[in-house]
Amino acid sequence: MIRIIGTVLLTISVGLTSVSAAELFDAEAAKHHFDAGRDFYVKKDYENAIKEFEEAAQIDPENTHAYYFMGYAYYKLKDMKKAMEVFDQAYEADAKYSPPR
Description:
This protein is mostly helical. The N and C termini lie far apart (46 Å). It contains five helices and no strands.
């Protein structure tokens, strides 16, 4: 059993870019990255906003707000293809998702 858990954690940690295995299920870390992304977004620093939203979504794949804001940041950068891909991810995470107003 421990061997299986270790293998799963190793697999998860190998697949991550800059998110540690400890952060993977850390709601506070996801919120931190989301809030940082929103701050960058407000400052119109869309590249850094995207990085932070990606981190938040990687930690919490069901964070539809992170996908939405990431998609809108891509939209602001005029990358419509990537924006639509990310908006699709938001709807895959929650089919009833409605962006915050």
